[in-house]
Amino acid sequence: xxxxxxWRAVGRSPWKFLTSSWPxxxxxxxLTGGLFGALVLTVLAALxxxxxxxxxxxxxxxLLLGVALSGIVVSRVERRRLRLMDPDPLPDPHRPxxxxxxxxxxxxxxxxxxxxxxxxxTAASLAAMWWMDVLVLGVSLAVPVLLATSPVGDPDAWPLxxxxxxxxxxxxxxxxxxxxxxxxxxxxxxxxxxxxxxxQLTEVRASRARLVGSFDAERRRIERDLHDxxxxxxxxxxxxxxxxxxxxxxxxxxxxxxxxxxxxxxLAVDELRxxxxxxxxxxxxxxxxxxxxxxxxxxxxxxxxxxxxxPHRPxxxVETAAYFVVAEALANATKHSAATRAEVHARLxxxxxxxxISDNGVGGADPAAGTGLVGLADRVAAADGRLRISSPAGGxxxxxxxxxxx
Amino acid sequence: MSLTVVLAEDxxxxxxxxxxxxxxxxxxxxxxxxDADSLITAVRAHRPDIVVTDIRMPPDxxxxxxxxAVALRREHPALPVLVLSQYVEQSYAARLLDLGSDGGVxxxxxxxxxAVTEFVDAVVRVAAGETVVDPEVVRxxxxxxxxxxxxxxxxxxxxxxxxxxxxxxxxxxxxLYVTEAAVNKHVSAILQKLDLRVDGEGHRRVxxxxxxxxx
Lengths: 406, 215
Prior knowledge:
Chain A is built from 14 helices and five strands. By secondary structure, chain A is α+β, with helices and mostly antiparallel strands.
């Protein structure tokens, strides 16, 4: 967690912490906070007062509107100040104005929840956090100084001096802990909500989907090239070898060698076939998920019950993602789980493809253990879906994916 | 006996190979085409004894050959069709065998062509009206344990898999080192367990094989 770094620094050895930049950055954060708070408090109090007094004149409404929108300015400064405590910048939650000009800007800003959240933050900041800044600074800096200086010339006051000296090394801790807390609160309140990040998130998702899409198109192309090129050539070669064998004297060494050559070519063809099937299953492109999964399970050593009922074909990206989820899940079940039975179940509900694959194996499938699960989750996420897995030790394992078809 | 053959295969290399193999054994390729539409035209023009076609061909490079085969069978129900595929796909096999058992049907992996003698043998058998299925299809099916087939004993399943390859009882008996009477007993047990109607031995055998392939 990035905003706990200040606190994490506090937890390190005292020497390391006291010589780090954290106490100074925290001090600066609280000092600027205190000064800025005082400034804002003065300006807003003055504006509010003037606004209420001149409300009759009509100017007041403008002033009060300024107060209402003040959160925007304050929060902008606060986001800048946060960089002192937090290397991770806070994005601006505001949308660009829907229309040009002051009116468009106002219309957009007044309708945004972010604007009112920022006003709330400003209020909370002035009502509570600013006082705390001042208080913490006072207690940790002013008190030792006062203690040390007040009893000048009083020989009986040395315990106070000792106490003051003891308080000095504590000050950086108090300051850093409060500054860390204040930064965390600021981040929590001012961070844009997911909805406000909508455009960026959609953009990221779209680009990820494009990436996966182009990757899949590339796979289809490779599969086709393999099929139309190398595979055909090898099969034709093998036919020629077969013809040559007919001409060879049965039992002669030539016949034997031709036979060996044929076996080798057959193996090469088999390997190529498996390879291009892994690259992209042909039946998926031609007939869709139920048939492709049927072919997959027909080849599987594990007995698999397939129950896929879809009223229509989902989009290609969804089909491909679903297919690879099934393929990977069954491969894992066969390889690692010692399962004796597996089930594949898929339905289309309200434009969401729900897919579950279960097996009765020993469980313990761990996404972190470098199986293809992570890659699968990425693939499903790129299609805007979710992949969940439940695989307790002792089994059973259940993989559940939901992929929206848009 | 010499068969007239219409060949459909988009790879020129492979097409030459097929023509070479067929002519070598005395059969006559009367037309060689490279796409599904020409295949249909060629069959209408030549009325061959058998059609041998690749599944994946232009125009779409998907299962055009298979679709053309299905269309041809609708037009000429007794036309023997042998389909070659780069991959064994159960779904393709099942769709092909749905054509019914009026004329011969075959589904072979393309690699089998290189076992020249066996391939030509399969062509002759399909032309004679038999159902020939690639051993690989059968091998995959044996992995599946599904309902009607679950009732079969391992031995019966073995017999059925040989039936699916289009073998006659005598041949099955030789392969399994049992008497032909024993094979007959297995076959009737299989037919009974798969709830197949009794109307003509050959037809029932095909139905058994179909049940097996659709399982």
